[in-house]
Amino acid sequence: MPELPEIETIKLQLRKVLIGQKLLKSNFPQLAGKKVVSIDRRGKVLLINFGEKLDLGFHFKMTGQLIYEANGKRIVGGHPTEDFWNTMPSKHTRAIFNFDSGTLYFNDQRMFGWVMMNPKFVEKLGEDALTITTNKFLELLKRLKKPIKLAIMDQAIISGVGNIYANDALWEAKINPQIPSHKLQREQIETLLEKIKLVLREGIKYGGATAADAKYIDLHGLGGHYQEHFRVYDREGQKCKRPACRQTGVKIEKFVLGGRGTYYCPKCQV
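Below the sequence we write its predicted structure tokens.
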């Protein structure tokens, strides 16, 4: 599913076309006549604000997507399907938002995603991975016995980190994904947070990722390019990118942790 960089990319692009527009008609009658005040992100949730206590939340889950049409042009973002090019609405359209200058469609092929007013879900999210402080991160992890990879993907602990960026951040920090969180030293945790922010910012820079099992397209209909910079994610059987490992032919391995494919280097992530 889209992670923090992908939702951040969609947020930045929607800000260019929706802020200030009036919503004429939608699945949410209480928003009729309201103007878009701001567009924000909480973890992996996109929030379109129409005023005080009027936040419209979108969670893309596995197959959610947004399509915005105006003046004969279309910009799209999220999980790629033929809906991106076909006539809208489609059989996958779950919500329609008619603005004074265009129309926004929320599609979800498998119906795991959601759109709702003032979602309580965001109140349960941990601090954003890009803004959480080192001290707060340390405080959260020191009592946890779960594997560190599962801890940083737990949205109630730290929000925004998914499978792709968790794998790459742990490689950057030279930390084994299976190590219990509370066993990490302070220096390791400080480094890990630094690397989490590094890979997330790089993901934003490249417009997100388009991986074989994590399809994503930005709002211009173009795939993200972070996959060209994967450290370990989706690189099973390929040589580790760390020079000392690469020179001796060490290859990336994959195993399942918490139901998710986990990639790591058996030499530099011990």
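The chain has a mean pLDDT of 90.
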